[in-house]
């Protein structure tokens, strides 16, 4: 065996196993930490689907009739523990989630309107540039079993806004 070359600069070694990643995913899932509420103000203005009954009326005309142009919120949550697999070039993840939609009435009351199951497959690659830990995320597939039009719109929106946002984030290495 040959000796490893001596490093003249600081070096970072990161190791992760599927067991560690899946154990963390299990702990977060069981603790209820894999939930997020999304309001219309959190979405970019250019996002193709705004969280208002007027926009959602494309998929459910009754919604617009019952609650004309009211704001909506989504509660995203994991239905099952995310599954992560480690490969030499990337991390692959299967996310099985649900999105429950609510109409927000003028008095602040949230009225539940529909529940969708959303399954996604993602790939993430860590990249170190300079003193920054970055990563790239690629959406390999999204499946919304109940509504094909919404699935296509969600794929488009995530590809256009969600994935580029995730790829623009970076963490400084001390």
TrEMBL record:
Q: Where is the Lipid-binding serum glycoprotein C-terminal domain?
A: 6-173
Q: Which residues are in coiled coils?
A: none
DNA-binding in keyword set: no
- Membrane-crossing segments per the record: 12-29
User: Any idea which UniProt keywords this protein has?
Assistant: Antibiotic, Antimicrobial, Disulfide bond, Glycoprotein, Immunity, Innate immunity, Membrane, Secreted, Signal, Transmembrane, Transmembrane helix
Gene3D superfamilies tied to this protein = Bactericidal permeability-increasing protein, domain 2
Q: Where in the cell is it found?
A: Secreted
Q: Which GO terms describe its biological process?
A: defense response to Gram-negative bacterium; innate immune response; lipopolysaccharide-mediated signaling pathway
SUPFAM superfamilies named in the record: Bactericidal permeability-increasing protein, BPI
Q: Which GO terms describe its molecular function?
A: lipopolysaccharide binding
Q: Which GO terms describe its cellular component?
A: extracellular space
Assembly, in brief, is: Monomer. Homodimer; disulfide-linked.
Q: What is known of its domains?
A: The N-terminal region may be exposed to the interior of the granule, whereas the C-terminal portion may be embedded in the membrane. During phagocytosis and degranulation, proteases may be released and activated and cleave BPI at the junction of the N- and C-terminal portions of the molecule, providing controlled release of the N-terminal antibacterial fragment when bacteria are ingested.
Q: What does this protein do?
A: The cytotoxic action of BPI is limited to many species of Gram-negative bacteria; this specificity may be explained by a strong affinity of the very basic N-terminal half for the negatively charged lipopolysaccharides that are unique to the Gram-negative bacterial outer envelope.
Q: What is this protein called?
A: Bactericidal permeability-increasing protein
Species, as recorded: Rhinopomastus cyanomelas
Lineage summary: Eukaryota, Metazoa, Chordata, Craniata, Vertebrata
């Amino acid at each position: 065996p040959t000796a490893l070359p001596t490093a003249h600069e600081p070096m970072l070694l990161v190791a992760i196993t599927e067991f560690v990643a899946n154990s963390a995913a299990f702990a977060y899932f069981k603790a209820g930490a894999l939930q997020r509420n999304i309001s219309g103000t959190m979405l970019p203005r250019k996002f193709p689907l705004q969280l208002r009954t007027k926009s959602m009326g494309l998929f459910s005309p009754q919604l617009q009739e019952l609650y004309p142009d009211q704001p909506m919120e989504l509660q995203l949550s994991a239905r099952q523990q995310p599954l992560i697999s480690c490969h030499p070039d990337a991390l692959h993840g299967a996310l099985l989630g649900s999105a429950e939609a609510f109409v927000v009435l003028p008095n602040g009351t949230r009225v539940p309107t529909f529940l969708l199951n959303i399954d996604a497959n993602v790939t993430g690659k860590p990249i170190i540039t300079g003193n920054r830990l970055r990563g790239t995320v690629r959406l390999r597939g999204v499946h919304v079993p109940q509504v094909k039009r919404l699935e296509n719109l969600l794929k488009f929106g995530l590809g256009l806004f969600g994935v580029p946002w995730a790829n623009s984030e970076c963490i400084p290495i001390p």
